[in-house]
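Supplementary notes for students who missed Thursday's class. We covered one full example, reproduced here. Read the sequence, then the structure, then the short commentary at the end.
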Amino acid sequence: MEIFWYKLLISLVLTIAIALVLKFRLYLARHVDFNDFKQFSVAFSLFRLLPFWGVYILLNYDTTSDVNIFYLSSLSAIKGGLVYRDFQSVYSPFFPYISGLFLLIWNSPKAIVLLMIFVEAAALRATIKWFNKVNMTVCSLIYLLLPTTFIFTIFGGQEDVWMWGAFVATLHVYRWKKSEFLLGAGLALGFLVSKLIFILILPGIFFLLQNKVRFILGFLSIFAPIILILYCQVGLQLLSPIQEANIPRTPNLLSLLRPFISDVVPVGLPILNWLGLLINVFIGLVWISKKRLKFSTEDVFIQLFIITYILLMLLQQSSYANYALLFLMPVLFLITESFVYSKWILFILLNVLLAIHPALWWHNNLFYITRFADLINPLFAVEYLFEIVIVFGLLGILYETYHTSVPGDMPN
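Structure (token representation):
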């Protein structure tokens, strides 16, 4: 329980800092411009590199969570091992090789965390360059201070922001060249360096584009040869990351409903994963059919990304709090400009609970609540309460995204 209280304390401190940013947001908007690389670098150093130094160098804190798993697979990768054959990985093929780059100069799991921090900085920088809003600096500062992003990045070394980084980088290329071929190629690279779930946005993008053939050719030009070569080397082990989806986790809609449905729906039923994915893609297609006439193509792409991965977090039985890093960065820049203080309070509360929920669930020995009788245990009841607030908070973000009237791709 000690880790839970530490993370709660950090979250409260960060919440106070966010409150100060909101209080002085007009002053910050006038005097701070994160389009300027020097100013951005100062903020990045203050809110990411300095905490990293304090936690891992000064206090010599040991890495935890997925970082040690990343370290083992990345170490095997840089030694010449072949992914899925010589070592296990639940990520896309290129991920362990890229995440191991810093190990070439610093052989420590801490190097993995540092790399994640720099990837996050690149994603944030690309996001700032994409959005041209009055509150851009405020959004950036709040992102760096959010309990979810701060704790998951500094203490968890989580990689989920890679997907948004790859996506927004591809959008920059698409806006620059207006080439469906390059869009397809860029998304194929994003798929190969991050997670298999990156593929979920492809049907919606395909539906939205006019030149679908060039998009498919661009995607296949990168994807097909890599996958073919890997299949020849590792065979069906290429599909091993899919097995991760059968492990039930929390919080998500299925974990919330589990006490109601345990008698009729077995825990970990594989068909639930495919059903969730189909519903996700279907809602995405319906969404863009309603939005395509109101927003530019790039605007709809960003909205599609947000709703796809919020739905993933809600509908997949294997999803958990870390998945929030998939969409928090674009959410902040897209929908918070019109937030009143009450919405900010709810948004920050959601982030606090997302940040501390994994520590509580871990303390509960990853106990998966299946019966109402389980709630007799006070800690299980608190964890279930967290689930309720998180799930409804995510539904609230979906609602705000659907009703947003603020364009998201105003070029600088």
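Commentary. DSSP finds 18 helices and no strands in the chain. Residues 2-402 form one domain. If anything here is unclear, bring it to office hours.
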